[in-house]
Structure formats: structure tokens, C-alpha cells
Amino acid sequence: MADSPSAIAPSSAETAWKVLALLAATYFLWHIYAKPRPKPALRSVAVLVLGDIGRSPRMMYHAESFALNKFQTYLIGYRGSKPIPSLLSLPRINILYLSEPPSYLRGLPFIIAGPLKVLSQVIDILRTLLERIPHPPEFILVQNPPSIPTLAVVWLVSRLRGSKVIIDWHNLGYSILALKLGEQHAFVRLAKRFEKYFGRSAYAHLFVTNAMREYLVQEWDLQGRKVVLHDRPPARFHRASPSESHELFQHLLPSFSSPSLTSFLPTSKPPYSTPFTYIPPSRFPPSGPTLDVDLALDMSDLSPFAEHVAMPELRGDRPALLVTSTSWTPDEDFGMLLDALKQYELAARAREGLEDEKERLPKILMAVTGKGPLRQRYMREVERLQMGSGQGDEGGWRYVRCASLWLEADDYPLLLGSADLGISLHSSSSGRDLPMKVVDMFGCGLPVCALGFACLDELVKDGVNGLVFHNAEQLAAQLESLLRGFPSAPALAALQASFQQAAHAPAGSPDHWEWGTWAENWNRTMRPLLLHDVASEAAL
């Protein structure tokens, strides 16, 4: 009787890993004896992320902070999205791009392609850390996950070159793999042992949450220094002024040009108005015209009076702007958001005849940012709901629209700073990490409705800076309560005001919740960790 595929897989995997280990060991031995290496250079760091550099904000912020603290900084990762502007201008930052794995691997079975891809990555990372960086760095900061092969590679390089390894624990790699294969799968168990073995003995460990620190210290007996570095946004994340919003929405007008959006959004006449902002008239000569707000939206004939035009303002007839950032993957349930929007549509229709405008629900534009494999599937469903080809839609949505956007690094903070409410669909595979998207939103003074999980309360204070939901019904109810009477929505205004209150409230008061910029948090946490040895040597 022939062996089943499941019986063959573990044996094949084991063989593949042995071959991988043999090849890697051969390369290591060759490199050890081929040429001697100098001692690590003080005030230097290699920041390694096995992913798209431009889509790894925390690691980009690390690199920026290292450079501003006078570290020669080498940021290592893959090409893709554009990095934040400072990384392209700071003199001490060098971006070293890794080569993509060979394209022919995509056509091979995973049991073959997986080990070969890892081998390709091992060789490329080693070449970068051992050859492309001229002097051994004092520190190697590595993002986890992914754990394979990065933790093993930096463990080896630290022994070859004397560098100190700092692991930034964003999440647990094996827990992400378990979402696809199940916790008892052989690969998941192997990945967990790998992660634990090579992650235990780093010089220092950074954690995104207290829950992550407590779990790993207790379960894995981590060695070295251990500090919690909560995510915080850089200073450029701030509440946008009406002028900044006006400029942004003019730039984004092509993204709002589909028939379903042009018929939904208020009429605009750029450069004087957008669907969300307009430039009202202010002072005119005594003989000039007198305009009301409606006429101010059509400014095409006012060029003789341009010097008397006021600064941009928010339109009173604008839709509420909601924003969510998603990777369009199964671990973020976009279907839950769609179900909540369906319920909101029905609630808005039920209230449209009310005489009291404060009890009505506004139109909402749901801006969805990000790229991922499920984007096309969900956006096709959105289009059916909007245009009225779904079941029970009564001619299509009248109060809700979704727009899928991809923004450059400069535009993303402005969109968050111009929005009225953020939505987070992040669900943690380990239950011990926090969504960076919410951190960015808070940096822009944007309250959130966030999907709840174990340690979310380290970031989202329910009823203070946001609301926590667990299903579509709860999210729909939160949208209704927060947006009722928009743009004069008291419940939403109370959440927005918490950001100003927190900035001025003394620690320990009811209005205080821990916050600050990335630079403040990084300098307070990381400088003592990094500069202790330098200060000690200088004192000798």
C-alpha cells in the first residue's frame, strides 16, 4: 500500500531541512576561515526586516531614531513601497535591499519551494551582514516574525562578528503559521522550537505589549535585557488642519471619480471645493457681490476677488469619513465590516424622515487602505451592494460608499488626520500584539472602533479614546451612536476631545492615559539600553 501524502510530508520536510542545514553550514565554515573580521564598530546598527521596508513602519521608525542618535544605520529588507522621506535624506542611513527569491520557486510544490526559498534568504542575508556592511555593527536589530530564517542567521552572525542582537517581538511567528496549518501541525511545532531556541539568548528583547513580555519571559525563559516599547507614531502624525485636508482631497479626487462615488458625494469644483472642504468668501470690496454658502461652492467666476478669499473650511454637507487599513487577509474579517455597513444603511434609511436633524444618520464614506489577496473579492461585493445588484438592497446603498485607496507615505497621515472615525479589524494570532494602525490613528487624534482581543486595553481605552466591538451588530450600533447628528455628533466629539484632554491631564488623573510620540518613547526606553556600554567605556 502506497504511503499517503501526509505520511510522506514530514520525512520530506526533515530531509529538506537537513540539506538546508548542510549547505548553510558549508557556507558558514567557508566564510569563517576565508577572511578575518574586525571588531564591531561602536555606534553602528543593522536593522533587519524580512519584508517590504516601506510596509514596516516600526522598523523604519527604529532606523530613523538610531540615525538621529548618531548611529551609522543599515536598514535591510525588500523593495516595495516607498520608505518614509526621512530615510532617504538622513546622512547616517544606508538602505540595503535584499534580492527577491528566484521566481521559478513559485511553480514548485511547497515542500520543495519552502526550503529552497529559505536557503536563498539565508545566503542573501549572510552576504549582506558579512560583506555589504563594511564593519561589523555594534547591534543587529531584527524584527520577529518572521522567525525563519532570520533568528538563526543573526544568532550566527553575532557569534562571527561580535554584534549584539536585539529582537523586536512584534508577534510570534509560529502562531501566525498555526492560523493556516493548525497548532498541532509538524511545521508549526518545528517553527515554535526554532523560534524559542534562537530567540532566547539575545542581548536584549523589545516587546510591543506587557502581555507579550510576561508570556515570553515565563514560558520561554528569555535571557538578556527585556523592555516594553509600545508602538507610537512619529511627530508627523497629527490632526490635519482644514487647509491640509483641502490639499489632500484635491490630490485624491481621481480616486473618487467612479460613477458610484460621483453620484454619492457632494458636488465640488476644484480648486475651490472638494467633497469635504471648501473655500468660503470672506471680504469683498463694497461694490462686490454678496454670497451665501451655497454660492461659495462655485467659485469659478471669483478670480478678480482671489485676494479676499478665506482659508479652507470643512463642509457642513460632507459625508462622515471613516478609514480602515487592512492587509486584505483572512486574519482580518472584512466581511464583519461589510455586515455592519449593511446594518448601518438600514438604520440610516429608517431615520431619514425624522424632523430632528440631530437624530438622523449621515452618509458615510468608508476609505479602505492597503493591499492584499482578498481585495478584489471584497471590492466586487462592495460594488454589487452599492449599485443595487445584491439581494434585498432596494436599489442599492444610499447612505454608504467604500473606496479602496493606496496612499503614499506622505498622504497616509493626512488621511488619518482628516478622517472622523477609524475602524480596526485586527485580530491577534497570539493575543499579545497590538495593531499599529490604531497607533497611527491615535497619533492623528482619530478615535477608533476596534475589534476586541486579550491585550487591546493596553492601547484602546473603551469609552475614552475609542470603542471596542466583538461582532458586526456591536460595530453597527457604535457607528449609529457615534455618528448621530453628524457633523455635530456629541458622542464622537467626546472621544475626539479625549486626545486634547490626555495631552494636558496630569498622570494619575481620570483623563490621563499614557501617550507620546515615537521619538519620546524611543529615547526614554532605548537610549539607556544602547548607550550604557558606550558611556562606560568613555569613562575609563
UniProtKB/TrEMBL annotation:
Q: Does the keyword Glycosyltransferase apply?
A: yes
Q: In which pathway does it act?
A: Protein modification; protein glycosylation
List the subcellular locations.
Endoplasmic reticulum membrane
Protein EC:
2.4.1.142
In which domain of life is the source organism classified?
Answer: Eukaryota
Q: Which keywords label this protein?
A: Endoplasmic reticulum, Glycosyltransferase, Membrane, Transferase, Transmembrane, Transmembrane helix
Q: Which residues form the Glycosyltransferase subfamily 4-like N-terminal domain?
A: 126-228
Q: Which Pfam families match?
A: Glyco_trans_1_4, Glyco_trans_4_4
Which top class of enzyme applies to this chain?
transferase
Query: Would the keyword Hydrolase be found if you checked this record's keyword annotation?
Result: no
Q: Which InterPro entries match?
A: ALG1-like, Glyco_trans_4-like_N
Grouped into one coarse class, the protein's main location is endoplasmic reticulum
One GO cellular component term of this record is:
endoplasmic reticulum membrane
Q: Which GO terms describe its molecular function?
A: chitobiosyldiphosphodolichol beta-mannosyltransferase activity
Q: How does it sit in the membrane?
A: Single-pass membrane protein
Purpose of the protein: Participates in the formation of the lipid-linked precursor oligosaccharide for N-glycosylation. Involved in assembling the dolichol-pyrophosphate-GlcNAc(2)-Man(5) intermediate on the cytoplasmic surface of the ER.
**Record-given protein name:** Chitobiosyldiphosphodolichol beta-mannosyltransferase
Q: Which organism is it from?
A: Trametes coccinea (strain BRFM310) (Pycnoporus coccineus)
Q: What is the lineage of its organism?
A: Eukaryota, Fungi, Dikarya, Basidiomycota, Agaricomycotina
